[in-house]
Automatic annotation (TrEMBL), chains A, B:
The gene is recR. This is Recombination protein RecR. SUPFAM superfamilies: Recombination protein RecR. Transmembrane segments: none annotated. GO terms for biological process: DNA recombination; DNA repair. May play a role in DNA repair. It seems to be involved in an RecBC-independent recombinational process of DNA repair. It may act with RecF and RecO. It comes from the Bacteria. It comes from Pseudothauera rhizosphaerae. It holds the Pfam family RecR_ZnF. The lineage of its organism: Bacteria, Pseudomonadati, Pseudomonadota, Betaproteobacteria, Rhodocyclales. GO terms for molecular function: DNA binding; zinc ion binding. A zinc finger (C4-type) spans 56-71. Residues 79-174 form the Toprim domain. Belongs to the RecR family. Keywords: DNA damage, DNA recombination, DNA repair, Metal-binding, Zinc, Zinc-finger.
Amino acid sequence: MSPSTLDELIDALRCLPGVGPRSAQRMAYHLLQRDQRGAARLAHALAYALDVLRHCERCNNFSETDVCARCASPQRDRSLLCVVEMPADLAMMEQTHAYNGLYYVLMGRLSPLDGIGPRELGLDRLIARATDGEVGEVILATNFTNEGEATAHTVAELLRTRGLRVSRLSRGVPVGGELEHTDSGTIAQALVERRAL
Amino acid sequence: MSPSTLDELIDALRCLPGVGPRSAQRMAYHLLQRDQRGAARLAHALAYALDVLRHCERCNNFSETDVCARCASPQRDRSLLCVVEMPADLAMMEQTHAYNGLYYVLMGRLSPLDGIGPRELGLDRLIARATDGEVGEVILATNFTNEGEATAHTVAELLRTRGLRVSRLSRGVPVGGELEHTDSGTIAQALVERRAL
């Protein structure tokens, strides 16, 4: 006897990552009962984003135009290409104000257990982008997780065989970090990758 | 340089309860990157539910019609009115197959700390519904939480002064429950509310 429109909404909310039947129900009640304006805004933002957003032809990030503003900018150093996993990683790199090259956003990482191999991740597109003749160095800024490291390793192999210079963000003790509170694996890496002064 | 359409979607997702900036971002990426069909379905289900769903004039539950099918059914015992907090509670009551009366769904509970008093909860509508002349007994089935108990207490006062019989679900040891694994507060209540055999 529960209205089917409500059931459909609850079911549709479950497409959100990490949302099970209970929280989908809670969300539906909340939207319909307490925040109809927010719900209308969400419905519109979703439909509009699906309509308007695509992937930038050059960096693969979400964009409202075929080539995003960053890739089209003449102020950027076209000889540098930084490879990140997600748009949020790109945003973090930008926040450093220490990089003025271009990006390639993988929109994921290699994850064999989830069936995401080089083909699913579209590494051929990255290779095509990196071998455009303008790029001289590719900086791998994937995460320092197992999957991120594996992704960096694979990408490095693919690009080195094509004559590109490939580098990776350094590992080490965080700025402001105290050795006493740093895990030993990080310290070990900081020792291996120690820098001559 | 992040596209504003994406930012708007991320911001709109934050109207969902329990969703902060991080998970809103994760949800937006997931929907756009991995589940565009689910996203389209969600946008449509939201817009449709906002358009179609209203509150049943009699029981206050979500309904696609002015009076829901349950309230309109001639098979239901109109002398019994069960008061629950949320539609999910109504669904649990129905699953018992032990109740054939009608319902009133508060769509919340008294919560002074959140500014939800008798007026915000619309208890005047419940009183109008319960004093229609057909209802003989009101069964309070709000939760046995502090707020649910306070709500039951207030509703009981309001209805008793209007000459209605008011009852409350019993508290006690759950069916199949072992005393050893039941909290002492529940056992104390089961003792106070012990039943003559």
